[in-house]
Amino acid sequence: MSAVIENAPIRDPAWRGRITMAIIAVALLWPLGRISEFKPWLLLDGQSISAARVFLGGFFPPRVDSEFLLLALRSAWITVAIATAGMTLAVAGAIPLALLGMTRLSVSAIGRRGMDRLPYLLRQVIRGGLVVARSLPEVVVALLFVRIVGLGPSAGVWAIAITYCAMLAKVLAEIVDSNDGRPAAALLTNGASRLGAFLYGTLPQCAAELVSYLIYRWECAIRASVVMGFVGAGGLGQQIDASVQMMAGNEVATMLVLFIVLVWVADAVSTRARRWLG
Amino acid sequence: MMVRADPGKRLTLVAVSLGFLILVVASFASLDLQWSELTEPGALTRMGDFLKGFSPPDTSAAFLSRVAWATLQTIAISLLSTVLATLCAAILALPASRPETTGRVVVRSVLNFLRAVPELIWAAIFVIAVGLGPFAGTLALAAHTTGVLGRLFGDTLENLPQASVRALRDNGVGPTARFLYATLPEALPQYMTYALYRWENNIRAATILGIVGAGGLGQLLFYYLSLFQMNRASTVILAMIGIVLVVDRLSYEARRWMTR
Q1: Fewer CB atoms inside 10 Å of the end CB: C or N, chain B?
Q2: By CB neighbour count within 10 A (0-12 exposed, 13-18 middle, 19+ buried), where does B38 fall?
Q3: Can you give the pLDDT of all 278 residues of chain A as single tens digits?
Q4: Is there a contact between A51 and B124 if contact means CB atoms under 8 Å apart?
Q5: Tens of pLDDT along B148-207?
Q6: A78 touches chain B (CB under 8 A)
Q7: Long-range contacts for B178-184 (Cβ within 8 Å, ≥24 apart)?
């Protein structure tokens, strides 16, 4: 049996299609490589190899004297503080925006399918504004705030506050709208205020989901605040950027490890908290 | 959340909430937020002047073509890095999916490291290694994405149904042919889904990588902001928003089309 297979001519029935696909792929990738100045031989260039070797060789041993470690730990705390403060401001701004944007609390929509034109328009405008604000990358916002309030953590806090406010408002409204609307509608029909209907009709069903999402976003904010440090918004990112500029590989190594530990701890805290919330 | 029914759980809730509250207070206490910068009398007009500088965006044809080129470059960076990462990840997924080998442990920890370091930090490192420009951005995105996809691909291989592989093996087919004609065709649709999802992420990431000098729109933005040419910076920012909006929309439509 196996002898028959070994002696049979080895032929791939689909070879023609495969070769055509390969040629098309290369033809498509070629211009991409040109546009993005893809020059792999630069990696083997003598000068860049020596630069990379000096830099990467400096990674070992990482710098762990107490003075530098204290500085790195302080920057790590600043990073967490930027993320936490930014999130707090973002939540404070997002709650009223979400309340305005959600359809569950529409009085004019009670008992029929649509709402009046004006409230509908208002909600669409709020949602549209949020979508645009959300699509601005947070690093860009941080870059702008560095121009306004100067280098330092406050630029990072405001950047997170603004971009996350837009994102949270949209998602919080969506979470609420995806839940059962009948309790809130019942309260509204019986004359409850909008806030009352929200607090007693809507919030109890989705509180766990909302909190769980906030914790997840807090974790994202920590990562974002490290990245924003690279444009001068303080914390661990700014320190890493400074050390990279000075080609101090040993400092970069220490802070990269610290950053990975930080993200890992935030991830563990957030996962445990969210699992507990169910 | 049956908190009320369980006093022990309620206590934990209070403790955790208190912990978060302390974290928030400590954060605000340890940061100098320069509220005065934003609340003092001249602050609002200064900020208004700053923002006014952004309008109108520069729409001269020569500049628009520059922005269009940078946009094209951003998309090229994201696509090329995703292709590179997909190839590397497909290779690394082989050792990463073999149970109980040292190779698996080593490759998985390398992948974890690649993934844990954000794209922007990779970009800053690659700018040193290969110089300023889009090539550094491509390598940075490829490094991070290899970490993400390598792990996902490895998990895909581990969870693949073994029937067709076993059928080929029982008929005396060698390991390479088994992989090419049974494993790969079965894993490929899942690979493509993951790769497309990462491409979407990478387009967004590629728009900002240039801030550390790694090409694309970000580099233009950083350049014009440094020169205080706000009208040009605002054109670049609009292009960035445009890219993100278009990508969001396309991926939403694509997902709806695929799940229909």
Answers
A1: C
A2: middle
A3: 444 555 566 677 778 888 898 899 888 888 888 888 888 887 777 777 777 777 777 777 888 888 899 999 999 999 999 999 999 999 999 988 888 877 666 666 666 666 677 778 888 888 788 887 778 888 888 988 888 888 889 889 999 998 999 889 888 888 888 888 788 888 888 888 888 888 888 888 888 888 888 888 998 899 899 889 988 888 899 999 899 888 888 898 899 889 989 988 888 888 888 788 76
A4: no
A5: 999 999 999 988 888 989 999 999 888 888 988 899 989 998 998 899 889 989 998 999
A6: yes
A7: B183/B157
SS3 A199: helix
Please count the other Cβ atoms lying within 10 Å of the Cβ belonging to residue A70. Answer: 10
Dist CA A38 CA B135 (whole Å): 5
- Which residues are CB-contacts of A80 (< 8 A; sequence separation ≥ 6)? A222, A225, A262, A266, B23, B27
Say yes or no for a CB contact (<8 Å) between A81 and B241. no
Nearest C-alpha neighbor of A183 from the set A210, A204, A202:
A202
Helix (H, G, I), strand (E, B) or coil at A18: helix
**Domains along chain B?**
58-258 (1.10.3720.10)
Residue B108's Cβ-count burial label (10 Å; 0-12, 13-18, 19+) is middle
Q: How many residues can be counted in chain A?
A: 278
Strands (E) across A108-230 are located at: none
A24 touches chain B (CB under 8 A): no
pTM equals 0.82
Q: Contacts of residue A252 in chain B, CB cutoff 8 Å? A: 125
Asked whether the ipTM of the predicted complex exceeds the cut of 0.90, the reply is no
pLDDT single digits (tens) B34-88: 776 667 777 777 778 888 888 888 888 889 999 999 999 999 999 999 999 999 9
* Fold of the A66-277 domain: MetI-like fold (1.10.3720)
> Can you give chain B as a three-state secondary structure string?
CCCCCCHHHHHHHHHHHHHHHHHHHHHHHHCCCCHHHHHCHHHHHHHHHHHHCCCCCCCCHHHHHHHHHHHHHHHHHHHHHHHHHHHHHHHHHHHHCCCCCHHHHHHHHHHHHHHHCCHHHHHHHHHHHHCCCHHHHHHHHHHHHHHHHHHHHHHHHHCCCCHHHHHHHHCCCCHHHHHHHHHHHHHHHHHHHHHHHHHHHHHHHHHHHHHHCCCHHHHHHHHHHHCCCHHHHHHHHHHHHHHHHHHHHHHHHHHHHHHC
Which tokens belong to B127? 């700018």
- Whether the CA torsion B120, B121, B126, B132 is positive or negative: it is positive
Determine contact, residues A98/A173, Cβ cutoff 8 Å.
yes
Cis ω before B56 (30° cut-off from 0): yes
The residue ranges of every structural domain in chain A are: 2-57, 66-277
- Closest chain B C-alpha to A220 CA, distance in angstroms: 12
